């Protein structure tokens, strides 16, 4: 029978192991921020920084992921013997976590203003100018409710619904159904107030497709629209990040005429796009109101 000292030693080992695991779990948000920061630099969405700072971000991220990988591969060892696994110590917080948190706090202060929901009566202008005030600072759920109301008023058969995700998941997914035409899935990150802060993925499928949202459509036309939509999200994010989700929803709703409206440039419906996409209908819907469909080449 083990003595008191052996029991105390075992308890101490387990306590140390749990502290290591808890430390890694608490560092996940910093890891995610660091990963996003690095990828935004590589994608050109964030201003490049000095080589030393970039290496620090990359080093922190690599070390953190190494910790998690070792934990996952040796989970049995951790459970059976608290000291069987030597985990590298995270030198946290992330080099950018403090700056990120400062920016988030600043954004929260700006977002406290009461959103204006009065619809502009002026004709013309960009979708960003006309729809910005309607959706500014709204949570995801309020944005969906306001969008549904707008669609009912305009008699457009477009629905946007929030899909169920696990509470532990750091993202929210919205499905946009343009009746008889296509389905779009928007994967976004939200803040503590439930507002969309960024869109991580937007993918478009045909109305009858049931592909996982991490795959692409089987049809070239919807792959092309996905490509165009990614550029649209970047444009909307740059100009009005606090109305991002609502503006994207309004823009996607205009694709209800995808297979019926001719190109506003050449007047034709089908046009040879490229060797990759072959002949396509007008897949580029402008950001101006009223929105007009174009073949990308006809608008260039």
* Biggest pleated sheet: 4 strands, antiparallel
Tell me roughly what share of residues is in helical segments.
40-55%
The second-level CATH architecture of the domain at 140-255 is: 2-Layer Sandwich
Q: Radius of gyration, rounded?
A: 24 Å
Name of the CATH first level of the domain at 140-255 = Alpha Beta
What ranges have pLDDT less than 50 throughout 5 or more consecutive residues? 76-98, 108-123
What value does the average pLDDT take? 76
Termini separation comes to 82 Å
Structural class: alpha+beta
Predict the CATH topology of the domain at 140-255.
Alpha-Beta Plaits
Adjacency order of strands in the biggest sheet: 1-2-3-4
Order of helices and strands: HHHHHHHEEEEHHEEEEH
> What overall form do the CA principal axes indicate?
elongated
Number of strands: 8
- In what range is the share of β-strand residues? 5-15%
Key terms:
8 strands, transcription, Alpha-Beta Plaits, Mediator complex subunit 27-domain-containing protein, alpha+beta, 300 residues, two-stranded antiparallel sheet
Give an overview in words.
- There is one protein chain.
- By secondary structure, the chain is an alpha+beta fold.
- Among the domains are: 140-255, Alpha-Beta Plaits (2-Layer Sandwich), CATH 3.30.70; 257-299, no CATH class.
- The protein contains 10 helices and 8 strands.
- The strands form 3 sheets. The chain has a 4-stranded antiparallel beta sheet. A two-stranded antiparallel sheet has the order 5-6.
- A hairpin with a 3-residue loop joins strand 2 (172-178) and strand 3 (182-190).
- The radius of gyration is 24 Å and the shape is elongated.
- Residues 76-98 and 108-123 have low confidence and may be disordered.
